[in-house]
Amino acid sequence: MNELSADVERVLIGSDELSEIAKRLGAEIDADYSYIDGVKDKLVLLGVLKGSVVFMGDLMKNITVPAEIDFMKVSSYGASTTHGKSVNIILDLYRKDLPNTDILIVEDIIDSGRTLSYLADYLLLKGARSVKAVTLLDKPDRREIDFQPQYVGKVIPDEFVIGYGLDYAEKYRTLPYVGILKREVYEKQL
Ligand code: IMP
Ligand code: MG
């Protein structure tokens, strides 16, 4: 057992199930965007840094319609395990082709809904032709803003999860599974 996995209460989604999820979502996305030709119509998979990188890597391999990738970085102020009121753009998206671009935001987890709802509004305001979202995980019990991503990998209970890109204080992103973090790890920080 390595140092990181010692802080894991239990594995919630193992690597086989994570692969299955990426496969299923890739097929759903392929079917919906089958009109994309990659020349006139563009699909951009827009990863939200940093939590989505591992999921993005697996998902993109399962999408066969032509797609470009891009990234934005946002931060929400507040404590590490809860979220404040405002979303801040740390790394913006600069593209001239937004009017003929369909954006699919790729997110690790939706919690209060603030990040995805803010990003979707922002990208539409910037002129994107359409904006949808895919999230690996959904914690519906925590929603404060009524936003529902079009594609959801797995609905999970209200627990703090780490691994497969997701962090607690920048740690645990490298774990190959999604696990529930032991409460004592973040409670001793509060
Ligand atoms: P929202 O804006 O409240 O929906 O929060 C979304 C962001 O909060 C995600 O992109 C994550 O970075 C972070 N987050 C929410 N819940 C968790 C969790 O259980 N583990 C790790 N990060 C989380
Ligand atoms: Mg995130």
Annotate the secondary structure layout.
Elements: E1 8-13, H1 15-32, E2 42-49, H2 53-60, E3 68-76, E4 87-91, E5 101-110, H3 114-125, E6 130-138, E7 151-155, E8 161-162, E9 178-181, H4 183-187
Parallel strand pairs: 2-3, 2-5, 5-6, 6-7
Antiparallel strand pairs: 1-9, 3-4, 8-9
Helix pairs in contact: 1-2
The structure holds inosinic acid and magnesium ion.
Residues 48, 51, 108 line the site of magnesium ion.
CATH class of the domain at 20-33 and 40-156: Alpha Beta
Bound molecules: inosinic acid, magnesium ion
| Largest sheet: spatial strand order | 4-3-2-5-6-7
Task: Assign the structural class, choosing from mainly alpha, mainly beta, alpha/beta, alpha+beta, or little secondary structure.
Answer: alpha/beta
What is the end-to-end distance? 26 Å
Uncertain stretches of 5 or more adjacent residues:
none
